[in-house]
């Protein structure tokens, strides 16, 4: 029966418009025994659904940008909102007219409108958020005095809550002077997108495709939570990008490279330090305990070399800027006053600061314990664990702000969509096959 059925396939295939024996064989007709490989192809209805969802996503981003433009009193945010509204609107139009959903064209249009156009305008105008000025000043101070911290900070703009590695982004301003190329935002964006692109390439493995890296990278850059800081500030983005790169390297079992990425992130900002135990736990699973130890030694050595000389140069300034100010205990109150649980406890409850710090310590112990009892075995699992820990910490720390949500958002989304370059309702049919039986 099986041989007779196979003999009929060429005849049946010739009766189907555009058909062939191979097409009929892969269609797995009822009654034919044995498994058949069926190519997964998206029907037109699924493509239409994908276009509709993509259009709605960019339209929602346009609404957000417009509302921000109309309601904010911060001038750089108004500029970003106006430019991004047009960019997202055009992206929605391109998505609606495209033959394939979630393509490169709509993401590129949205990214140009929400990142490139406002960034060029703001750099030319000299408008930026305060943290950009702080970082650029720290580069000059590092060259002049060996420490990026003002000795006796008196005003909010005098404080620099970042670790010494962040001052490297201020060196172009110190060396090149007052030229557009020296703007720290350009270097924030270059390092951020470069590290994220490398993380995507590592996650993709041995499948060379520029589009599979470009599409998710453009979508990430065009996301409002990323596009806004890329244009107006961007100080957190290189930290997040290096965290993603470190996890990607740890997932591939490269101890030295992963250790360097871990140490580089840890030398920029305190928010990267929870990455160390998570990345090392992942590396212990993928490459063994010795590899994790090598990565840990590499990371700690790099971080110590970046931080310790500066801390010893002026211990009092280092403590005031980097330890007390981020906790809201510096001489000037921290601007990070979003009404999250830690800040509310510290502000309105007697002894609330101690309670918030204790809750923060307990949550850190709980997450660390989970790394021992149930270590993450994949990069996605490690990113999820890190996002959970950072999310809890950002809710409980006494001085916090809603902008920190970009950390868990990128960690949760990037390793699902970035490395594979895939999104729901992808337009191009995959050549992978599934197995079915009659």
TrEMBL record:
<feature type="transmembrane region" description="Helical">
    <location>
        <begin position="385"/>
        <end position="407"/>
    </location>
</feature>
<protein>
    <submittedName>
        <fullName>Putative integral membrane protein</fullName>
    </submittedName>
</protein>
<keyword id="KW-1133">Transmembrane helix</keyword>
<dbReference type="InterPro" id="IPR018584">
    <property type="entry name" value="GT87"/>
</dbReference>
<keyword id="KW-1003">Cell membrane</keyword>
<dbReference type="GO" id="GO:0005886">
    <property type="term" value="C:plasma membrane"/>
</dbReference>
<keyword id="KW-0812">Transmembrane</keyword>
<feature type="transmembrane region" description="Helical">
    <location>
        <begin position="55"/>
        <end position="73"/>
    </location>
</feature>
<dbReference type="GO" id="GO:0016758">
    <property type="term" value="F:hexosyltransferase activity"/>
</dbReference>
<feature type="transmembrane region" description="Helical">
    <location>
        <begin position="104"/>
        <end position="124"/>
    </location>
</feature>
<feature type="transmembrane region" description="Helical">
    <location>
        <begin position="270"/>
        <end position="288"/>
    </location>
</feature>
<feature type="transmembrane region" description="Helical">
    <location>
        <begin position="295"/>
        <end position="313"/>
    </location>
</feature>
<keyword id="KW-0472">Membrane</keyword>
<comment type="similarity">
    <text>Belongs to the glycosyltransferase 87 family.</text>
</comment>
<dbReference type="Pfam" id="PF09594">
    <property type="entry name" value="GT87"/>
</dbReference>
<feature type="transmembrane region" description="Helical">
    <location>
        <begin position="79"/>
        <end position="97"/>
    </location>
</feature>
<keyword id="KW-0808">Transferase</keyword>
<feature type="transmembrane region" description="Helical">
    <location>
        <begin position="226"/>
        <end position="250"/>
    </location>
</feature>
<feature type="transmembrane region" description="Helical">
    <location>
        <begin position="348"/>
        <end position="373"/>
    </location>
</feature>
<feature type="transmembrane region" description="Helical">
    <location>
        <begin position="186"/>
        <end position="205"/>
    </location>
</feature>
